[in-house]
Specification:
5 helices, two-stranded antiparallel ribbon, globular, mainly alpha, 2 strands
């Protein structure tokens, strides 16, 4: 094998995907600490290893992911009186929360979640105010910066971490 040949592009892409996966896995646990008020556990609790009850299925993570301009806690008045007459099991109101968690209300790429705004406050008159100023975003960036520094230091001190030249 020639040591001066470049690796196949698919191998490079596989390495990039693997690194991205490792990065997101490392966030699962620490994000739970960041979104919990100090000294107060989340209710209902979230497991570090289970993702099914996260996202729009949990009140705290759902509120952070809720598109700016929508109120996660507000019941949207969707009058279903006609349906109520025929099917009494259908609720009269569907909340934003229910629509997002059921997938009935799709979220488009141009709808920023509340978690990217400073203190999760959105001003509809000035949507740029506080955008990308969230503490959570800063903590994520710091997490990736520090973990890459720690990884590079660990690589320098490991005798098997760097490939040896082929002779």
């Amino acid at each position: 094998m020639n040591p001066y040949t470049f690796p196949h592009p698919l191998k490079i892409q596989k390495g990039i995907s693997s690194a991205r996966s490792d990065d997101t896995k490392s966030l699962k646990g620490v994000v739970l600490e960041w979104i919990s008020p100090p000294g107060i556990p989340l209710n209902p609790p979230l497991s570090r290893n289970v993702k099914t009850n996260r996202g729009y299925h949990h009140p705290v993570t759902g509120a952070l992911l809720c598109p700016a301009g929508l109120d996660w806690n507000d019941a949207e008045s969707a009058l279903l009186l006609l349906h109520m007459l025929f099917t009494p099991l259908i609720p009269l109101f569907f909340s934003i929360r229910e629509k997002l968690s059921s997938g009935e209300m799709p979220v488009h790429g141009d709808q920023w979640p509340m978690l990217v705004y400073a203190d999760q406050e959105y001003d509809p008159q000035d949507p740029w105010e506080g955008l990308f100023r969230s503490r959570i975003l800063v903590w994520v960036r710091m997490h990736f910066s520090f973990s890459s520094v720690i990884d590079s230091v660990a690589c320098r001190h490991s005798s098997t971490s760097l490939p040896r030249p082929v002779r």
